[in-house]
Amino acid sequence: MKSILKKWGQLSLVKQIIVGLVIGIILAITIPEAAKPVALLGSLFVGALKAIAPVLVLFLVMSAIAQHKSGHKTNMKSVIFLYLLGTFLAGLIAVIVSFIFPVGLTLTKGAEGVTPPSGVVEVLKSLLLSVVDNPVSAISNANYIGILAWAILLGLALRSAADTTKTMIANFSDAVSKLVTWVIKLAPLGIMGLVFESITANGLEALLGYGKLLAILIGCMLFVALVINPIIVFVYIKQNPYPLVFKCLKESAITAFFTRSSASNIPVNMRLCENLGLNKDSYSVSIPLGATINMAGAAVTISVLTLAAVHTLGIQVDIPTAIILSVLSAVCACGASGVAGGSLLLIPLACSLFGIPAEIAMQVVGVGFIIGVLQDSFETALNSSTDVLFTAAAEFKEWRKEGKTIDINKAA
Which residues 6+ apart lie within 8 Å of 303 measured at CB? Predict the structure, then answer.
């Protein structure tokens, strides 16, 4: 037994997760009833991540800003630019692909009991209200915009505090980070439970009728992940981007795919940034920020499903309107975290650009919920892994200017 545990400990976390993934699939296919308790492992893992992530973000950001020394450079401007550029390009690619491969929908019933925002103004209002949320409420409700706002303000206020106070905050930050590493070590069991629950609860039968729509959605996301993002990264680091791209996909996208929550994946991304040797002052802010505004996958979802409705209704769309849709989908995607229901509930907002009635738009949302088991998984995997990718690209650009060697393969 000891030898088995020793060999297990020698495996990398990714290999352990793959083992858990395979076991979960086997159990779901062979003995779904007998293995039902396995699903609890997934719920516990996601629950633990969701519980620790808000506290981690608060202390990491607050500590990084409080101890930031004047004149010490961060890459936040570059990272934010990359987030916005990547989200816009994802929406644009989705629009182009939707015109090349138009797909229609069978609209029969809508999504019951959900209320979409009435316009961009409501989305922006929701975001602004999230900023001034009570700090305790922000943490308990995992409102990362509010958590970021309070962490930044507290960090700035503490910059003139005594060194002992700063040390105490740093110690709390380190302690929470340690708790996160313990939770992440349970990822193989968590992923096993999540994949088991996904297969037994949803199956794939309900998705067969939407094969073409799913192919467009997933194809766009894969194109963004494997073509668009590498091009952006290459422009920044001036070397082969794929080692970094694949590392981010392997170590961030896998967990995000099954947790289906960018917020829950924040601890995983923080650890990956640390392994890449990135500046903690930068990534402790950019990673939680990316979980709220870096939404390439959401931009793809909004654009593809909106244009699917357009094609279904036979509405003619000109190029200027298509470009406007790309911009609108990017803006909506950035606001997705501020709206209950995420990207799907922002589809009616985009549909309004083409004069599509709300009742029809909500039927499109209903379709989105049907395919959500795969759509949301791929969307979150793209969103979350890109947070690390762009954070690393911005910093590696500075390394290149300073003459430092960028060797992804040597990263822990």
Answer: 91, 94, 95, 98, 325, 326, 329, 350
Neighbour-count burial of 69, counting CB atoms closer than 10 A to its CB (0-12 exposed, 13-18 middle, 19+ buried):
exposed
Return the number of other C-beta atoms located less than 10 Å from residue 132's C-beta. 11
* Residue 277 burial (C-beta neighbours within 10 Å; 0-12, 13-18, 19+): middle
Rg (CA), the chain: 21
Contact 90, 302 (CB under 8 A): no
Q: What is the pLDDT of residues 176-187, one digit of tens each?
A: 878 877 887 887
Measure the CA–CA gap between 351 and 358, rounded to whole angstroms.
Answer: 8
Query: How far apart, in whole angstroms, are the C-alpha atoms of residue 56 and residue 151?
Result: 11
What is the spatial distance between Cα 283 and Cα 360, in angstroms, rounded to a whole number? 42
First and final C-alpha spacing in the chain: 28
Maximum alpha-carbon separation in the chain: 67
Report which secondary-structure segment, H or E, holds 201: helix 187-201
Q: What angle do CA 378, 380, 383 make, to 5 degrees?
A: 110
Residue among 162, 131, 189, 136 nearest 67 (CA): 162
Q: Is the pTM of this model over 0.90?
A: no
Q: How confident is the model at residue 388 (pLDDT cuts 50, 70, 90)?
A: very high
Which residues lie closer than 8 Å to 404 by C-beta, 6 or more apart? none
